[in-house]
Amino acid sequence: MDEYKIKRIEEGLTKIEFPEFDKISSDAPVFYNPHMELNRDLSILAIQVFQKQEKRDINICDLFGGSGIRGIRYKNEIDGVDNVFINDISEVANYYEQHNIELNNLENVEVHSHDASMFLRIKRGEFDVIDIDPFGTPSPFLDSAGYCARRKSLLCVTATDTSALCGTYKEPCIRKYNAKPYKSEYCHETGIRILAGFVALTLSKYGKYIDVKMSHSTEHYMRLYIYVNKGPKKTDQSLKNIGYISHCKNCLHRQTSLGLASPIEEICPVCGEKLIHAGPLWLGDIQDSDFIQKMIDETEHKKINTEKSALKLLNSCLNEAKAPATFYDVHKICKSLRISAPKLDLIFDEIKRQGFIAIKTHYNPLGIKSDATVEDIKNILLELCKEF
Ligand SMILES: C[S@@+](CC[C@H](N)C(=O)[O-])C[C@H]1O[C@@H](n2cnc3c(N)ncnc32)[C@H](O)[C@@H]1O
Fold this sequence. Notes:
This protein is α/β, with parallel strands linked by helices. The chain has helices at 37-54, 69-77, 91-103, 116-122, 142-148, 162-166, 170-177, 187-204, 232-238, 289-298, 307-320, 330-337, 344-353, 374-387, and strands spanning 6-11, 14-19, 58-62, 81-87, 109-112, 129-132, 153-159, 208-218, 221-230, 242-247, 254-258, 276-282, 328-329, 359-361, 364-369. The chain has two domains: 6-320, Rossmann fold, CATH 3.40.50.150; 328-387, Phenylalanyl-tRNA Synthetase, Chain B, domain 1 (2-Layer Sandwich). A hairpin with a 2-residue loop joins strand 14 (359-361) and strand 15. It starts with 5 loop residues before the first strand and ends with a helix.
Protein backbone atom coordinates (compact mmCIF):
# COMPACT_ATOMS: atom_id res chain seq x y z
CA MET A 1 0.00 0.00 0.00
CA ASP A 2 3.12 2.19 -0.17
CA GLU A 3 2.09 3.67 -3.53
CA TYR A 4 -0.53 5.94 -1.91
CA LYS A 5 -0.16 9.38 -0.37
CA ILE A 6 -2.02 9.15 2.95
CA LYS A 7 -4.56 11.62 4.27
CA ARG A 8 -5.56 11.81 7.95
CA ILE A 9 -8.90 13.19 9.15
CA GLU A 10 -10.68 13.36 12.49
CA GLU A 11 -14.39 12.92 13.18
CA GLY A 12 -15.76 12.92 16.73
CA LEU A 13 -13.12 11.21 18.90
CA THR A 14 -11.76 9.12 16.05
CA LYS A 15 -8.87 9.53 13.62
CA ILE A 16 -8.80 7.82 10.25
CA GLU A 17 -6.18 7.48 7.50
CA PHE A 18 -6.81 6.54 3.87
CA PRO A 19 -5.23 7.08 0.42
CA GLU A 20 -5.66 10.66 -0.78
CA PHE A 21 -7.93 11.11 -3.84
CA ASP A 22 -8.89 14.05 -6.10
CA LYS A 23 -12.62 13.51 -6.37
CA ILE A 24 -15.16 11.83 -4.07
CA SER A 25 -16.12 8.82 -6.15
CA SER A 26 -16.47 5.04 -6.05
CA ASP A 27 -13.21 4.95 -8.09
CA ALA A 28 -11.15 6.17 -5.11
CA PRO A 29 -8.87 3.37 -3.76
CA VAL A 30 -10.74 3.65 -0.43
CA PHE A 31 -14.01 5.54 -0.21
CA TYR A 32 -14.38 8.40 2.26
CA ASN A 33 -17.00 11.14 1.94
CA PRO A 34 -16.63 14.14 4.30
CA HIS A 35 -20.22 15.21 3.45
CA MET A 36 -21.46 12.09 5.29
CA GLU A 37 -20.10 13.23 8.66
CA LEU A 38 -23.59 14.40 9.67
CA ASN A 39 -24.94 10.98 8.70
CA ARG A 40 -22.30 9.27 10.86
CA ASP A 41 -22.85 11.69 13.79
CA LEU A 42 -26.60 11.07 13.74
CA SER A 43 -25.95 7.31 13.55
CA ILE A 44 -23.88 7.53 16.73
CA LEU A 45 -26.74 9.31 18.49
CA ALA A 46 -29.38 6.87 17.18
CA ILE A 47 -27.40 3.73 18.03
CA GLN A 48 -26.60 5.09 21.51
CA VAL A 49 -30.31 5.75 22.14
CA PHE A 50 -31.14 2.24 20.89
CA GLN A 51 -28.44 0.72 23.15
CA LYS A 52 -29.75 2.56 26.21
CA GLN A 53 -33.36 1.59 25.44
CA GLU A 54 -32.40 -2.07 25.08
CA LYS A 55 -30.30 -1.95 28.30
CA ARG A 56 -27.75 -4.48 26.99
CA ASP A 57 -24.36 -4.50 25.30
CA ILE A 58 -24.71 -4.62 21.54
CA ASN A 59 -22.90 -6.07 18.52
CA ILE A 60 -22.79 -3.86 15.43
CA CYS A 61 -22.26 -4.75 11.78
CA ASP A 62 -20.84 -2.02 9.51
CA LEU A 63 -21.66 -3.86 6.29
CA PHE A 64 -19.90 -1.52 3.83
CA GLY A 65 -16.86 -0.38 5.78
CA GLY A 66 -14.84 1.73 3.29
CA SER A 67 -12.12 3.35 5.42
CA GLY A 68 -13.77 1.77 8.49
CA ILE A 69 -14.76 5.16 9.86
CA ARG A 70 -18.31 4.18 10.72
CA GLY A 71 -17.64 0.94 12.59
CA ILE A 72 -14.54 2.38 14.26
CA ARG A 73 -16.45 5.45 15.46
CA TYR A 74 -19.26 3.20 16.71
CA LYS A 75 -16.81 1.23 18.89
CA ASN A 76 -14.88 4.33 19.96
CA GLU A 77 -17.78 6.70 20.67
CA ILE A 78 -20.84 4.65 21.69
CA ASP A 79 -21.16 3.20 25.22
CA GLY A 80 -22.21 -0.41 25.68
CA VAL A 81 -20.78 -1.72 22.41
CA ASP A 82 -19.44 -5.27 22.64
CA ASN A 83 -18.13 -6.27 19.19
CA VAL A 84 -18.04 -4.39 15.89
CA PHE A 85 -17.79 -6.27 12.60
CA ILE A 86 -16.56 -4.21 9.66
CA ASN A 87 -17.11 -5.78 6.26
CA ASP A 88 -16.05 -4.65 2.78
CA ILE A 89 -15.53 -6.56 -0.43
CA SER A 90 -12.43 -4.49 -1.29
CA GLU A 91 -9.07 -5.73 0.00
CA VAL A 92 -7.58 -2.23 -0.08
CA ALA A 93 -10.47 -1.05 2.11
CA ASN A 94 -9.84 -4.01 4.46
CA TYR A 95 -6.16 -3.02 4.77
CA TYR A 96 -7.08 0.54 5.88
CA GLU A 97 -9.90 -0.66 8.12
CA GLN A 98 -7.38 -2.80 10.04
CA HIS A 99 -4.83 0.03 10.02
CA ASN A 100 -7.43 2.47 11.43
CA ILE A 101 -8.55 0.06 14.16
CA GLU A 102 -4.91 -0.04 15.32
CA LEU A 103 -4.52 3.73 14.92
CA ASN A 104 -7.37 4.16 17.44
CA ASN A 105 -6.08 1.38 19.75
CA LEU A 106 -9.35 -0.54 19.64
CA GLU A 107 -10.11 -4.12 20.61
CA ASN A 108 -13.08 -6.28 19.63
CA VAL A 109 -13.33 -4.81 16.13
CA GLU A 110 -13.04 -7.42 13.35
CA VAL A 111 -12.49 -6.87 9.63
CA HIS A 112 -14.19 -9.16 7.09
CA SER A 113 -13.97 -9.35 3.32
CA HIS A 114 -17.19 -10.75 1.88
CA ASP A 115 -19.98 -9.76 -0.41
CA ALA A 116 -22.42 -7.93 1.90
CA SER A 117 -25.31 -10.40 1.52
CA MET A 118 -23.01 -13.36 2.03
CA PHE A 119 -21.57 -11.80 5.21
CA LEU A 120 -25.01 -11.21 6.72
CA ARG A 121 -26.00 -14.80 6.02
CA ILE A 122 -22.77 -16.23 7.51
CA LYS A 123 -23.40 -14.23 10.68
CA ARG A 124 -27.18 -14.61 10.80
CA GLY A 125 -28.68 -13.47 14.12
CA GLU A 126 -25.38 -12.16 15.55
CA PHE A 127 -25.98 -8.42 15.18
CA ASP A 128 -28.05 -6.00 17.24
CA VAL A 129 -27.40 -3.25 14.71
CA ILE A 130 -26.96 -3.65 10.95
CA ASP A 131 -25.74 -0.54 9.14
CA ILE A 132 -26.26 -0.58 5.36
CA ASP A 133 -24.39 2.29 3.71
CA PRO A 134 -23.70 1.17 0.13
CA PHE A 135 -22.96 2.96 -3.13
CA GLY A 136 -26.43 3.84 -4.51
CA THR A 137 -29.31 1.59 -3.61
CA PRO A 138 -29.57 -0.67 -0.53
CA SER A 139 -32.26 -2.71 -2.30
CA PRO A 140 -30.19 -5.83 -3.24
CA PHE A 141 -29.04 -6.29 0.38
CA LEU A 142 -32.36 -5.92 2.17
CA ASP A 143 -33.42 -9.53 1.68
CA SER A 144 -30.35 -10.79 3.52
CA ALA A 145 -30.84 -8.09 6.16
CA GLY A 146 -34.46 -9.22 6.56
CA TYR A 147 -33.46 -12.87 6.85
CA CYS A 148 -30.59 -12.22 9.25
CA ALA A 149 -31.82 -9.37 11.50
CA ARG A 150 -32.45 -10.31 15.10
CA ARG A 151 -35.71 -9.51 16.84
CA LYS A 152 -35.42 -6.20 18.74
CA SER A 153 -32.60 -4.97 16.52
CA LEU A 154 -31.86 -1.72 14.71
CA LEU A 155 -31.48 -1.44 10.94
CA CYS A 156 -29.79 1.73 9.65
CA VAL A 157 -30.24 2.22 5.91
CA THR A 158 -28.75 4.81 3.53
CA ALA A 159 -29.89 5.26 -0.08
CA THR A 160 -28.04 7.61 -2.43
CA ASP A 161 -30.12 6.78 -5.51
CA THR A 162 -32.44 9.68 -4.71
CA SER A 163 -33.22 10.36 -8.38
CA ALA A 164 -34.91 6.95 -8.53
CA LEU A 165 -36.74 7.31 -5.21
CA CYS A 166 -37.84 10.87 -6.01
CA GLY A 167 -39.12 9.93 -9.44
CA THR A 168 -36.71 11.87 -11.69
CA TYR A 169 -36.43 8.50 -13.41
CA LYS A 170 -39.46 6.28 -12.91
CA GLU A 171 -38.19 2.93 -14.20
CA PRO A 172 -35.21 2.53 -11.81
CA CYS A 173 -37.58 3.03 -8.86
CA ILE A 174 -39.97 0.40 -10.16
CA ARG A 175 -37.02 -1.94 -10.80
CA LYS A 176 -35.25 -1.45 -7.47
CA TYR A 177 -38.14 -0.73 -5.08
CA ASN A 178 -41.11 -2.26 -6.95
CA ALA A 179 -42.89 1.05 -6.46
CA LYS A 180 -44.04 3.88 -8.68
CA PRO A 181 -42.56 7.24 -7.66
CA TYR A 182 -43.94 10.67 -8.51
CA LYS A 183 -41.85 13.82 -8.84
CA SER A 184 -44.05 16.22 -6.86
CA GLU A 185 -42.87 19.10 -4.66
CA TYR A 186 -42.81 16.62 -1.73
CA CYS A 187 -41.00 13.87 -3.68
CA HIS A 188 -38.23 13.50 -1.08
CA GLU A 189 -40.79 12.49 1.51
CA THR A 190 -42.45 10.16 -1.00
CA GLY A 191 -38.98 8.67 -1.63
CA ILE A 192 -38.39 8.00 2.06
CA ARG A 193 -41.84 6.42 2.29
CA ILE A 194 -41.15 4.22 -0.77
CA LEU A 195 -37.88 3.05 0.81
CA ALA A 196 -39.56 2.39 4.19
CA GLY A 197 -42.40 0.54 2.43
CA PHE A 198 -39.92 -1.61 0.52
CA VAL A 199 -38.05 -2.46 3.75
CA ALA A 200 -41.36 -3.35 5.45
CA LEU A 201 -42.47 -5.59 2.58
CA THR A 202 -39.05 -7.27 2.27
CA LEU A 203 -38.79 -7.98 6.01
CA SER A 204 -42.37 -9.23 6.15
CA LYS A 205 -41.28 -12.30 4.15
CA TYR A 206 -39.33 -13.33 7.24
CA GLY A 207 -42.15 -12.57 9.69
CA LYS A 208 -40.45 -9.32 10.76
CA TYR A 209 -42.01 -5.88 11.08
CA ILE A 210 -40.67 -2.37 11.26
CA ASP A 211 -41.02 0.74 13.39
CA VAL A 212 -39.34 3.77 11.81
CA LYS A 213 -37.58 5.70 14.57
CA MET A 214 -36.11 8.57 12.54
CA SER A 215 -35.65 9.41 8.88
CA HIS A 216 -34.26 12.29 6.85
CA SER A 217 -33.41 13.37 3.36
CA THR A 218 -30.21 15.42 3.28
CA GLU A 219 -28.13 16.55 0.29
CA HIS A 220 -27.68 13.52 -1.97
CA TYR A 221 -28.99 10.80 0.33
CA MET A 222 -31.84 9.45 2.44
CA ARG A 223 -31.33 7.71 5.76
CA LEU A 224 -33.65 5.63 7.93
CA TYR A 225 -33.30 4.22 11.45
CA ILE A 226 -35.66 1.28 11.78
CA TYR A 227 -36.48 -0.87 14.79
CA VAL A 228 -37.02 -4.48 13.71
CA ASN A 229 -39.10 -7.00 15.59
CA LYS A 230 -40.56 -10.41 14.86
CA GLY A 231 -44.00 -12.02 14.88
CA PRO A 232 -46.44 -12.96 12.09
CA LYS A 233 -49.53 -11.26 13.61
CA LYS A 234 -47.76 -7.95 14.23
CA THR A 235 -46.18 -8.18 10.78
CA ASP A 236 -49.64 -8.55 9.20
CA GLN A 237 -50.85 -5.61 11.28
CA SER A 238 -47.85 -3.46 10.32
CA LEU A 239 -48.41 -4.05 6.60
CA LYS A 240 -51.69 -2.16 6.98
CA ASN A 241 -49.45 0.92 6.88
CA ILE A 242 -48.66 0.25 3.22
CA GLY A 243 -50.62 2.36 0.76
CA TYR A 244 -50.49 5.07 -1.89
CA ILE A 245 -50.30 8.86 -2.19
CA SER A 246 -52.47 10.28 -4.95
CA HIS A 247 -51.69 13.73 -6.33
CA CYS A 248 -53.58 16.14 -8.57
CA LYS A 249 -51.24 18.02 -10.89
CA ASN A 250 -53.98 20.52 -11.68
CA CYS A 251 -55.08 21.81 -8.26
CA LEU A 252 -52.27 20.32 -6.08
CA HIS A 253 -54.74 18.33 -3.94
CA ARG A 254 -53.24 15.18 -2.48
CA GLN A 255 -54.69 12.25 -0.54
CA THR A 256 -53.51 8.96 0.92
CA SER A 257 -55.14 5.54 0.72
CA LEU A 258 -54.21 2.60 2.89
CA GLY A 259 -53.97 -0.94 1.53
CA LEU A 260 -51.59 -2.65 -0.87
CA ALA A 261 -54.32 -3.69 -3.27
CA SER A 262 -57.40 -1.73 -2.16
CA PRO A 263 -59.27 0.30 -4.78
CA ILE A 264 -57.88 3.84 -5.18
CA GLU A 265 -59.87 6.89 -6.25
CA GLU A 266 -58.97 7.84 -9.82
CA ILE A 267 -60.49 11.33 -10.01
CA CYS A 268 -59.53 14.39 -7.98
CA PRO A 269 -62.46 15.15 -5.62
CA VAL A 270 -61.59 18.88 -5.77
CA CYS A 271 -61.25 19.62 -9.50
CA GLY A 272 -62.16 16.42 -11.35
CA GLU A 273 -58.73 15.89 -13.00
CA LYS A 274 -57.11 12.44 -13.13
CA LEU A 275 -55.09 11.62 -9.98
CA ILE A 276 -51.50 10.35 -10.21
CA HIS A 277 -50.53 7.61 -7.74
CA ALA A 278 -47.20 6.94 -6.03
CA GLY A 279 -46.55 3.67 -4.19
CA PRO A 280 -46.81 1.20 -2.68
CA LEU A 281 -45.23 3.14 0.16
CA TRP A 282 -45.19 3.43 3.96
CA LEU A 283 -47.98 5.62 5.34
CA GLY A 284 -47.13 4.84 8.97
CA ASP A 285 -44.96 7.07 11.13
CA ILE A 286 -41.53 7.99 9.78
CA GLN A 287 -40.47 9.99 12.85
CA ASP A 288 -40.74 8.86 16.50
CA SER A 289 -40.76 11.89 18.82
CA ASP A 290 -39.61 10.00 21.92
CA PHE A 291 -36.65 8.47 20.10
CA ILE A 292 -35.70 11.77 18.43
CA GLN A 293 -35.92 13.68 21.74
CA LYS A 294 -33.50 11.14 23.22
CA MET A 295 -31.16 11.66 20.24
CA ILE A 296 -31.27 15.40 20.96
CA ASP A 297 -30.52 14.79 24.65
CA GLU A 298 -27.64 12.50 23.68
CA THR A 299 -25.83 15.36 21.88
CA GLU A 300 -24.91 16.63 25.39
CA HIS A 301 -22.75 13.55 25.95
CA LYS A 302 -21.05 13.24 22.55
CA LYS A 303 -18.37 15.12 20.65
CA ILE A 304 -20.19 15.85 17.41
CA ASN A 305 -18.54 18.29 14.97
CA THR A 306 -21.83 18.76 13.11
CA GLU A 307 -23.77 19.53 16.32
CA LYS A 308 -25.44 22.68 14.99
CA SER A 309 -26.79 21.04 11.80
CA ALA A 310 -27.60 17.82 13.68
CA LEU A 311 -29.72 19.70 16.24
CA LYS A 312 -31.46 21.75 13.57
CA LEU A 313 -32.38 18.61 11.65
CA LEU A 314 -33.40 16.64 14.75
CA ASN A 315 -35.63 19.45 16.03
CA SER A 316 -37.31 19.71 12.65
CA CYS A 317 -37.89 15.94 12.53
CA LEU A 318 -39.21 16.07 16.12
CA ASN A 319 -41.88 18.58 15.07
CA GLU A 320 -42.69 16.65 11.89
CA ALA A 321 -43.54 13.61 14.02
CA LYS A 322 -46.88 15.29 14.81
CA ALA A 323 -47.68 16.20 11.20
CA PRO A 324 -49.64 14.42 8.47
CA ALA A 325 -48.01 12.92 5.35
CA THR A 326 -46.89 15.26 2.51
CA PHE A 327 -46.52 19.05 2.64
CA TYR A 328 -47.42 22.15 0.66
CA ASP A 329 -44.83 24.24 -1.16
CA VAL A 330 -45.87 27.87 -0.72
CA HIS A 331 -44.18 29.07 -3.91
CA LYS A 332 -45.73 26.32 -6.01
CA ILE A 333 -49.22 27.16 -4.76
CA CYS A 334 -48.67 30.92 -5.17
CA LYS A 335 -47.45 30.32 -8.72
CA SER A 336 -50.62 28.36 -9.50
CA LEU A 337 -52.67 31.29 -8.12
CA ARG A 338 -50.49 33.83 -10.02
CA ILE A 339 -49.80 35.80 -6.83
CA SER A 340 -46.53 36.63 -5.10
CA ALA A 341 -45.86 34.73 -1.90
CA PRO A 342 -46.73 36.42 1.40
CA LYS A 343 -44.14 36.21 4.21
CA LEU A 344 -43.80 32.65 5.45
CA ASP A 345 -44.32 33.60 9.12
CA LEU A 346 -47.62 35.28 8.28
CA ILE A 347 -48.83 32.20 6.44
CA PHE A 348 -47.93 29.93 9.35
CA ASP A 349 -49.69 32.27 11.82
CA GLU A 350 -52.83 32.46 9.72
CA ILE A 351 -53.07 28.69 9.18
CA LYS A 352 -52.78 28.20 12.94
CA ARG A 353 -55.23 31.04 13.70
CA GLN A 354 -57.80 29.20 11.58
CA GLY A 355 -57.34 26.12 13.79
CA PHE A 356 -55.13 23.98 11.53
CA ILE A 357 -51.70 22.46 12.15
CA ALA A 358 -48.79 24.30 10.48
CA ILE A 359 -45.38 22.70 10.86
CA LYS A 360 -42.08 23.38 9.09
CA THR A 361 -40.34 20.48 7.38
CA HIS A 362 -36.67 19.63 6.92
CA TYR A 363 -37.43 18.59 3.33
CA ASN A 364 -37.96 22.14 2.12
CA PRO A 365 -37.60 25.56 3.79
CA LEU A 366 -40.76 26.68 1.95
CA GLY A 367 -42.72 23.58 2.94
CA ILE A 368 -45.72 23.55 5.27
CA LYS A 369 -47.06 20.36 6.78
CA SER A 370 -50.71 20.87 7.59
CA ASP A 371 -54.07 19.17 8.06
CA ALA A 372 -55.67 21.99 6.04
CA THR A 373 -56.76 21.10 2.49
CA VAL A 374 -55.09 22.71 -0.50
CA GLU A 375 -58.26 24.78 -0.92
CA ASP A 376 -57.94 26.08 2.66
CA ILE A 377 -54.30 27.00 2.02
CA LYS A 378 -55.17 28.74 -1.25
CA ASN A 379 -57.89 30.80 0.47
CA ILE A 380 -55.45 31.80 3.21
CA LEU A 381 -52.83 32.86 0.66
CA LEU A 382 -55.38 34.87 -1.35
CA GLU A 383 -56.64 36.61 1.81
CA LEU A 384 -53.10 37.46 2.94
CA CYS A 385 -52.32 38.84 -0.50
CA LYS A 386 -55.31 41.15 -0.35
CA GLU A 387 -54.12 42.55 2.99
CA PHE A 388 -50.71 43.61 1.67
C1 LIG B 1 -20.37 4.12 0.22
S1 LIG B 1 -18.94 3.18 0.57
C2 LIG B 1 -19.03 2.97 2.31
C3 LIG B 1 -18.76 4.21 3.08
C4 LIG B 1 -18.64 4.02 4.56
N1 LIG B 1 -19.79 3.33 5.11
C5 LIG B 1 -18.48 5.40 5.23
O1 LIG B 1 -19.33 5.82 6.07
O2 LIG B 1 -17.49 6.07 4.92
C6 LIG B 1 -19.38 1.61 -0.04
C7 LIG B 1 -18.33 0.53 0.23
O3 LIG B 1 -18.95 -0.72 -0.13
C8 LIG B 1 -17.98 -1.58 -0.69
N2 LIG B 1 -18.76 -2.55 -1.49
C9 LIG B 1 -19.26 -2.41 -2.73
N3 LIG B 1 -19.99 -3.49 -3.08
C10 LIG B 1 -19.94 -4.34 -2.02
C11 LIG B 1 -20.51 -5.62 -1.77
N4 LIG B 1 -21.30 -6.23 -2.66
N5 LIG B 1 -20.26 -6.20 -0.57
C12 LIG B 1 -19.48 -5.59 0.35
N6 LIG B 1 -18.90 -4.38 0.15
C13 LIG B 1 -19.14 -3.77 -1.01
C14 LIG B 1 -17.05 -0.66 -1.46
O4 LIG B 1 -15.77 -1.25 -1.56
C15 LIG B 1 -17.06 0.62 -0.60
O5 LIG B 1 -15.95 0.65 0.26
